[in-house]
Each structure stands twice: as C-alpha cells, then as structure tokens.
Amino acid sequence: MDKVSYFIVNSFTTELYKGNPAAVCLLESTIPALTMQKIAQEIPVPTTTFIQKVDNVFFLRWFTPEMEIPICGHGTIAGAFLLWHQGIWPVESSITFQTVSGSLQANWFNKMVEITIKQYQLEEIECPYELEEWLGTKPTYVGKTDLDYIVELSHEEYIADFQPDFPAMKHFPVRGVCITSMSQEKGIDIVSRFFSPAQGIDEDHVNGSTHGALGPYWCKKLSKESIVSKQLSKRGGLLYVTPKVNDVAIAGSAVLILAGEILI
Fold first, then answer.
1. Which keywords appear in this protein's UniProt record, sorted alphabetically (predicted)?
2. Does one domain contain both 160 and 194?
3. What digits encode the pLDDT tens for the residues 124-145?
4. Which of 20, 102, 116, 204 is close enough to 74 for a disulfide, judged by CB 3.0 to 4.6 Å?
5. Owning domain of residue 40
6. Helix/strand/coil (H/E/C) assignment for every residue in 29-51
7. pTM over 0.90
8. Does 64 share its domain with 156?
9. Cβ–Cβ < 8 Å for 61, 68
C-alpha cells in the first residue's frame, strides 16, 4: 500500500493546543479527489490541505471532512509554514500556490506567515428576518459577500457568549455567518466568530477568509491601515490584517504539533 506523509499544524497561534489545526498532506504524485476526501474524513481536524510540488509550482487543495472547499486561510498558512519548516522551500523566498480560486502568495514576515487573499466585496443589506431571529438581537450592521453574512454586533460580550442554533442555519443562502464587534482588549482591534455548518464545520476555530471582508470594513470604520483581530472560539487565535488595493494580507503564527503517515 502507498503512504502519504501528513502533519498537523496549528495556525494563528504560537501555542501547541490553540489556534486552528490543519492537516497538511505532501503528495509525491497525483491522487484522486475521492482519496483526498477519505483522508480528510479520517484525520480529525477542520481542514486537510493537500500540496503537490510539480517542478517549482505548488498545487494546493483544501478539504473539510464533508467536501472540497474553494478557500481556506488557516490551511494555507499551515501549508506555507510546513514547506519552510521542513526545508522544502527556502524561507527567504515567497511561495505561490495554484488553487481552484486562483493564485495565492505566502511570505515569511516578522516570524509569521503572511498570505494574500481576495478582497471580498461587502454589500450592506437589510437583516433577513430569519437571521435576526437566529441572532436573538438586532445587529448594528449586516453585510453579504459572495460567501457569507458579515454581522456587526454592539458588544464583545455578546460575541463571546453567543450560542448558535446550527440546524436553523441550513436555510441560510450563504457559506457561513461571521459575527463581529470592536474589542475591549488592549492591543486588539476587533473580535469575531465564524459558523459554517454548510461546510461541515459548525464553528471554525479561526477563520482567515472572512477577513477578506472584515479587514477593509473595520479599517475603514476605525480609520486604520491595519487591524489586529482575535477569534473568540474556545481555541482562539490572532490575525494581523492589512487591506491592499484589490486584496488583503493576513498574517499569523503557526506551530507544528504532529507528524505521521497515512496509508492510501
């Protein structure tokens, strides 16, 4: 039987058991998507990242235990960190990943991995009745991107204490719901949580892709060029977010916690 090397990397943290865990599988040859999906079901983490190097080009795909997904910030952070950590790619050189969503670039910056993702256009909308009922309160702001609802609430405590009704989300016409507010903690600008049962992830420990909308929204509102964002999930994590002209740079730390092999 063939084997695939895999690693567990916690993204957006410097602590062993914090942040968002991703499995990173390094492929020596192409394997079927169905096999990737089975591996993602077998490894108990929110996202499994598959990387195949062909010449000097890195091809990257992401799978949750339920499906292949078009973008995953923490999985990309984990993949780039591992390539540098294992000496597969020189740390002084940037990495360009080819994905189903286009090219993604990663750089080593201030002892963190910085990736550049798409800036998601955020359109303000009237809060749908079912969303307000789900929130249990009237939001300060509701916007919608191509992927998600972005909801600003008035108090950080509400973000931390919120108990979502996941079955009720099955009718929402979005990938997920991000709730956010200003932070009361010194050195932290905003807080958020992200829920996406449609992808097989009830609550994402730390979500990078939502910051393609959160970064520009909060930087404009706070009159800042960049923000520090804290995810208020049980594991938690920190993201350093800087909007550019057409995209958004997201930086975070990462730590390797496990290495092994899986039979295919």
1. Isomerase
2. yes
3. 999 999 999 999 999 999 999 9
4. 20
5. 3-119+251-263
6. CCCCHHHHHHHHHHCCCCEEEEE
7. yes
8. no
9. yes
